[in-house]
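Contributing new complexes? Match this layout with pyridoxal-5'-phosphate.
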Amino acid sequence: MARVYNFSAGPSMLPEPVLKTAQAELLDYHGSGQSVMEMSHRSKWFDEIIQNTEAAMRRVLNVPDNYKIGFFQGGATQQFAMVPLNFMTTGTADYLVTGNFSKKAAEEGAKFGTARIAASSKDRNFTYIPDVKAVEYDPNASYIHICQNNTIFGTRFVEVPQVEGIPLVADMSSMIFSEPVDVTKYGCIYFGVQKNVAPAGMAVAIIREDLLGHSAKGIAPEKIPTMMNYTTLLKSNSMYNTPPCWCIYMTGLVMDYLEKEVGGLTEMQKINEAKAKVLYDYLDSQDFYHNPVEHRYRSIMNVTFTSPTPELDKEFCAAAADAGFVNLKGHRLVGGMRASIYNAMPPKAIDELVVFMEQFRKEHAGQ
Ligand SMILES: Cc1ncc(COP(=O)(O)O)c(C=O)c1O
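Output block (do not edit by hand):
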């Protein structure tokens, strides 16, 4: 069986040892005689799974005790609405729009109050991140929202807004667990799991306790739909209803892998930075391919590039797929190519991709 190098932006590759453990435990989880897919979420086995998953996530990400962790259905997109519904207590919040997902988050926010665009990088097609220190924040904002890594445009925040008394809320869907994060800088961190954590079907939110128990201005806390209410869901430890059991189990396996096989997020970051460097160094060494992002803000998870023409881009993607490098087509908003090189992408895949790119360049330059 030949496995391909899958450069998809999400769902994405999972670490092979994790897939093998899942396979080994598929029919009989730890002597239960059942698959995790089949067992009751109220069983002692699943209770242990969810508790261990949360505990491991706390260790890996160094989550302080005054933060709750919740496992929710609805993906990151549902978080775009849950955040304002639960946290927009003053009726207004500041959004930094640095790509498509932060724009969508702001649009959801505007359904519950004022989602003020405090800064945007649209003027240069989202190829940079605004200087967070130069932004004028609204002192009345309930929170400041950012998307820490912009999956489509291949940019990332290297510094985050810090305003006394205003919590920072971050969508970390496409960079979570790729590097250490100082959780104390945030009021709420959320992410869809389908890139660096687990199969699709779940979002995780990590929320500072003092932000719970409230609601958007004009909406009483008890009027928040139950499945959108962080306080209710967290009070029942993500078990108000049937949780995404398989995703929680797989998340636990990935946490184990990060702790025991990788050696934690500092190690993971070193590996990820080295991988990204190989690709960016190659992109900067020639002028057939082009990456438009301001260097300081280049993502280490999503690397975008174009060849000289859209026709060659198409040819590149087809030839790459034939050679075992799949899903390199860029997002339709950007065109060109995008290599999503999340945690599970092995370093040798990047080395091999660069060799392939150079070969393609030699064959097509000057055409
Ligand atoms: C940064 C970011 N936020 C949000 C989303 C949307 O996530 P979901 O599909 O889980 O709703 C994505 C999806 O790719 C993303 O990359």
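Reviewers usually confirm one structural detail per submission. For this one: The CA atoms of residues 20 and 26 lie 10 Å apart.
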